[in-house]
Every structure is written in structure tokens, then in C-alpha cells.
Design brief:
Number of strands: 3
Order of helices and strands: EHHEHE
Largest sheet: 3 strands, antiparallel
Number of helices: 3
Strand content: 15-25%
Radius of gyration: 14 Å
Helix content: 25-40%
Shape: globular
């Protein structure tokens, strides 16, 4: 199945399914800055894209997001990474990733 993962503040300490757990893990990866987790300094997303031109930052962040999800949540496969391009956010240099992942063998479904 395919699911869309965005940055939300929802945390479920007892996910009801493996899929819910995987999606929450991906959100955690996306919201964690690289180097901020003690004893796991490689966990999270690099901020090297900070202060780069918008197209360059998007390309850099896309690559970093894919690599981080592949490394820390192997049960999910990244189908695509896009960004919410709200004009005000873009003008402020804010990148909010929207990641489409597939879990399992089915090709249908959407969250």
C-alpha cells in the first residue's frame, strides 16, 4: 500500500498496527535533526541544505530524506518526495516534505 507522510505533531505511544508504527517512525526521522540523538548521532536529517537557494535545498533534502528512511526504516520503500509549496513558506525558505512510501506488496491504498 502507498501512504503519504507529512510533518505532524501526532505521537502515538502504542500504535495499533505495524503500518501505523512504520509511518510514525518515518515522521520521527523527518523531524529529527542529524546529530541531536545521543548515542545515535547518525539518526535524522542533515541540515546542510540550510541557507541554500530553494531549488538546491530541495534537491539536497530529497536525497537526504530518501537515504535516512532507507537506513532507519527498511520496512518502507520511498516512492517519491515532494514539498508543500505554499508561497509564504517558500518566501521564508521553509521546506515541508511530503513523502509517499509503500509498505508491503500491494500497490493500492492511501492514508
Amino acid at each position: 500500500m502507498k501512504y503519504t507522510v507529512t510533518l505532524t505533531d501526532d505521537v502515538d505511544f502504542a500504535p495499533q498496527s505495524e503500518t501505523a508504527e512504520i509511518l510514525q517512525n518515518i515522521r520521527t526521522i523527518l523531524k529529527t535533526r542529524l546529530g541531536t540523538v545521543p548515542l545515535a548521532r547518525d539518526f535524522g536529517i542533515s541540515w546542510e541544505h540550510l541557507d541554500k537557494p530553494y531549488p538546491v535545498a530541495k534537491a539536497m533534502m530529497t536525497s537526504v530524506v530518501i537515504d535516512a528512511i532507507e537506513a532507519y526504516e527498511p520496512r518502507a520503500r520511498v516512492e517519491s518526495v515532494d514539498f508543500d509549496e505554499i508561497e509564504e513558506a517558500v518566501m521564508q525558505g521553509i521546506l515541508k516534505p511530503r513523502v509517499i512510501v509503500s509498505i508491503g506488496d500491494d500497490e493500492e491504498g492511501e492514508e
